[in-house]
Amino acid sequence: MAIEYLGLSEINGPLIVLEGVQNASYEEIVEFTVDQKQKKLGRIVEIYKDKAIIQVFEGTEEMSLKNTRTKLTGHPMEVSLSEDILGRVFNGLGQPIDGLDPIVSDIKRNVNGLPLNPCTREYPRNYIHTGISAIDCLTTLIRGQKLPIFSGNGLPHDELAAQIVQQASLGEDSDEKFGIVFAAMGVKHDVAEFFRRTFEESGASSHVTMFLNLANDPVVERLITPKVALTAAEYLAFEKNMHILVILTDMTSFAEAMREVSSSKGEIPSRKGYPGYLYSELATLYERAGIVRGVNGSVTQIPILTMPNDDITHPIPDLTGYITEGQIVLDRSLHQTAIYPPISVLPSLSRLMKDGIGAGYTREDHQDLANQLFSSYAHVGDARALASVIGEDELSPLDKKYLKFGNAFENRFVAQGKSENRSMHETLNLGWELLSMLPREELDRIDTKILDKYYHTEAELLNKKEGTSENNLEEANH
C-alpha cells in the first residue's frame, strides 16, 4: 500500500525537502498532487536519514508547504517504448506533444539505462554516410562512435544538424534498418519549429524520433531529456536491431542546467561553477553509444555543444574531448567568409575512422587521400602566414600553388550547399581533383600504387573533361 505524505518541509527553487520519509530510494520517481487537482512529477536526488530532497520536473510554481500531497512510486523514471515512436515528437520527459495519442506499450525502460559489460562491446566498424565532404572524407563517422561537434554562439550548428538528419544513411548498398533520435535541450521556439518543419518537408520525419525541451520548459526536465532519448535509441538498436544515430543539441544547455540545480542544492562548485561530477554525468551519457556483440543494431552519437567565448579549453568541450573519439570543430573565421559548413579541418579528427574506411568499406584510396589533404592544407597555413609578411607576389611558385589549393579546398571541398548530398565517390574524386593542383612530388603521404591509379595533373583532368564533353555532344547529334 502506497503511503501519501501531506505537506512539505521546504521549497528551494526546483527542489523540495520532504521529512519523515520511509523506504525511499535514490532516483525514485515521486508524484505530487497540488490543491487536489494539479499533478506533477519529481525524482529523489538525495537522501539523508528520513529526509529526501526531490527535484520537481514541472517546477515548484503553485506549490506551497501545505497544499501538496506526495506519493512515492517505488520505481525510477521509466518511458513507454515501441516501434511507433519513430515519426513522433515528444517533450523532454517522453510525453507526446504532436497531438497524437500517447505510446501504449507493455515495454517500459528505466531512463538511467543499464551498465554495459565492456566485454560484450564490439569494436565499431563501417561508416555512416552524412553527404558532407569534410565529415565523410576527413572525419568519417563510424557506427557505434561518439563524435561531438564543437560550435559557438551564432555558428550554423542547427543547420548542420538538420542537414545530417536529412542526409544520413548507412551507405548506398546497405539494406539494414536505420533511424535517428533527435534530442534538443533548451532550444528556442523558432529553432524547434525549424527542426520540425525541415524534417517534415524533407520527408525525413518518418524515421526520426524527436525529443524537444524548450527554453521556457523547466530546467530539471533538461537533465532528463538526453537520458530519455538514449533509452529510446537503445531500445530501437538492441531490441529492434536498428542502426540508430543520436543527435544531442545543445550539451552546453544540459551542463548549465546541472550547474543551476547543483547551486540550488548548495553543493561546492568546481571549475567555472560547474559541479565536480560534470565529467561522470557526461560520461554516463556518452558511453551509452556502441555496438553489442550478437546484436545487429548500433547506437552512434553526435553531441553538439556551443563553446562559451569559442574557448575549446572550457570545461564542457574539454571534458567531452576526454570521453569521445574525436571532434568536429566549427570555425568562426570560415563562417564570416560565407563558407558553409564552416568546419575547421585541422583541429577536427575521428579516432575510429581508420578502421571503418578503405577497401571493403569506402574505397582503397580513402585513408591516403585524407592524410594528404590534411598535410597539404597544413602547408596552406604556412604559406598564408608568409604571404601576410612579405606579400603574395614575393612567394615562391610552389607556395603560390599551395595558396591556390587552399582557396579551392575551402570553397569547393569544405563548402557545399545546405541540401547538397555528396556521395562518398564524389567526395573522394573531388579530393583528387584538388590534389591535381599540386606537383606529384609534393604528395608524399600517398602510396605509389594509389598515386599511379588516381593522380592526374590539371592538364590531364582538363583534357579528360573536354573529351567527355565532345563524346556527349557526338552522342546527342547521333
Describe the structure.
This protein has 3 domains: 4-76, Elongation Factor Tu (Ef-tu), domain 3, CATH 2.40.30; 79-355, Rossmann fold (3-Layer(aba) Sandwich); 366-468, Bovine Mitochondrial F1-ATPase, ATP Synthase Beta Chain, Chain D, domain3 (Orthogonal Bundle), CATH 1.10.1140. 36% of the residues lie in helices and 21% in strands. It has 13 helices and 17 strands. The strands form 3 sheets. It has an 8-stranded mixed β-sheet with strand order 9-13-12-14-15-11-16-17, with helices on both faces. Strands 1-7-4-5-6-3-2 form a 7-stranded antiparallel β-sheet, with no helix packed on it. It is elongated and about 85 Å long. The N and C termini lie far apart (87 Å). The mean pLDDT is 90. Keywords: ATP synthesis, Hydrogen ion transport, Ion transport, Transport. InterPro entries: ATP-synt_VA_C, ATPase_F1/V1/A1_a/bsu_N, ATPase_F1/V1/A1_a/bsu_nucl-bd, P-loop_NTPase, V-ATPase_su_B/beta. This is V-type ATP synthase beta chain.
Attribute tags:
478 residues; alpha/beta; Elongation Factor Tu (Ef-tu), domain 3; Bovine Mitochondrial F1-ATPase, ATP Synthase Beta Chain, Chain D, domain3; 3 domains; 8-stranded mixed beta sheet; 21% strand; ion transport; V-type ATP synthase beta chain; ATP-synt_VA_C
Mean pLDDT: 90
CATH class of the largest domain: Alpha Beta
User: What is the CA-CA span between the terminal residues?
Assistant: 87 Å
Largest sheet: 8 strands, mixed
Per DSSP E runs of 2 or more residues, the count of β-strands stands at: 17
* Number of domains as seen in the coordinates: 3
**Reported CATH architecture of the largest domain:** 3-Layer(aba) Sandwich
Secondary-structure-based class equals: alpha/beta
Are there runs of 5+ residues with pLDDT below 50, and where? none
Q: Classify the fold: give the CATH topology of the largest domain.
A: Rossmann fold
Spatial order of the strands forming the largest sheet: 9-13-12-14-15-11-16-17
Using the CA coordinates, give the radius of gyration. Answer: 26 Å
Strand content: 15-25%
Count of alpha and pi helical runs: 13
Protein name: V-type ATP synthase beta chain
GO biological process, one term: proton motive force-driven plasma membrane ATP synthesis
GO molecular function: ATP binding; proton-transporting ATP synthase activity, rotational mechanism; proton-transporting ATPase activity, rotational mechanism
Keywords: ATP synthesis, Hydrogen ion transport, Ion transport, Transport
